[in-house]
């Protein structure tokens, strides 16, 4: 929403003149700002060419999300897509389903959407307008201590301009227990399927409230990646995310893993791996040599266990071996700035990007050490 400040005397006269001009056009003067949190997404044409930010598989179904509340579904492995009705026009950034029916979407305005029918219809569970007062009240309790006071101060900053900050990613371990993470240390958890949410700023080793960019379960472990090379693992006994400093000073944007390796990827093509396969304990991270320095935006471990596929902002796929040690470039058939990836069949993936959605077929041979 545009704000006008310090317009001065001349600016004041212009503003008054403009006001009377509006009165001469009643229809124009009565136009009201439509809050995207209250405005259903418009049904669009050429939906496969809309800017999309993420895609996931839901059994045999695919669900993709993107700009201005666009949510798409496909029941034929990405050959055709249909737009679902969404209750908001906020940009949507991440989508995840813990089972074949229930799924969650998060995005700008601190919005959290929920579906109970495999992504065919959606309802809003949370947004920044309701979360701001509730989360601040959580930390305002008398005698809450210094940690709560610090969290409250951060929330005051986060919501100072209203419900503008996004949740960047979401992960539900089952239909009840889930987490949403976002900018400036934002993290919230639910144990009742999203009916209520609790701030978790006090349950993570993030005193500087760095951005939390992605959350993923790898095996039985739950991880968050973010700024300054930080990787957090959930200590389930304590209900607390503990930090591991990888030594990298930039941002990680995502995480993928299989039974053999964990891969964290991000800015300027930076990729780190751990050979622990997601097990708890003394996780050691080491950098991986990559073919170029284009920022990696999304990645998956292939379901057949043969390796990893990462995508980058230059419209390239990077195919890695199952140990995550060696990657080679695989140019896309229709390059675009890629944002998300999901597996749909053996050696076939669907990718999203700023130009829409594509299907890419991978080569049969896995990469080998040069």
Q: Low-confidence parts lasting 5 or more residues at pLDDT below 50?
A: 1-29
Structural class: mainly beta
N-end to C-end Cα span: 53 Å
What is the gyration radius calculated from CA atoms? 22 Å
Reported CATH architecture of the largest domain: 7 Propeller
Strand order across the largest sheet: 1-2-3-4
Give the averaged pLDDT, no decimals: 88
* Helicity level: 10-25%
Give the number of DSSP strands: 27
Separate helix tally: 4
CATH fourth-tier homologous superfamily of the largest domain: YVTN repeat-like/Quinoprotein amine dehydrogenase
* CATH topology group of the largest domain: Methylamine Dehydrogenase, Chain H
Task: Please outline the major beta sheet.
Answer: 4 strands, antiparallel
CATH class of the largest domain: Mainly Beta
Basic shape: globular
When the domains are counted, the total is: 2
What proportion of the residues form beta strands (DSSP E)? 35-45%
Report on this model:
This protein is mostly beta strands and 370 residues long. It is 12% helix and 38% strand. The strands form seven sheets. The chain has a four-stranded antiparallel β-sheet, with no helix packed on it. A four-stranded antiparallel β-sheet has the order 5-6-7-8. Strands 9-10-11-12 form a four-stranded antiparallel β-sheet. Helix 3 (128-139) packs antiparallel against helix 4 (146-158). The radius of gyration is 22 Å and the shape is globular. It starts with 7 loop residues before the first helix and ends in a 9-residue tail after the last strand.
List the helices and strands and how they pair.
Elements: H1 8-23, H2 26-29, E1 52-58, E2 61-66, E3 71-74, E4 82-84, E5 92-96, E6 103-107, E7 111-115, E8 123-126, H3 128-139, H4 146-158, E9 167-172, E10 178-182, E11 187-190, E12 198-199, E13 212-218, E14 221-226, E15 230-235, E16 240-245, E17 252-257, E18 262-266, E19 271-274, E20 286-287, E21 296-301, E22 307-312, E23 316-321, E24 327-331, E25 338-345, E26 348-353, E27 356-361
Antiparallel strand pairs: 1-2, 2-3, 3-4, 5-6, 6-7, 7-8, 9-10, 10-11, 11-12, 13-14, 14-15, 15-16, 17-18, 18-19, 19-20, 21-22, 22-23, 23-24, 25-26, 26-27
Helix pairs in contact: 3-4
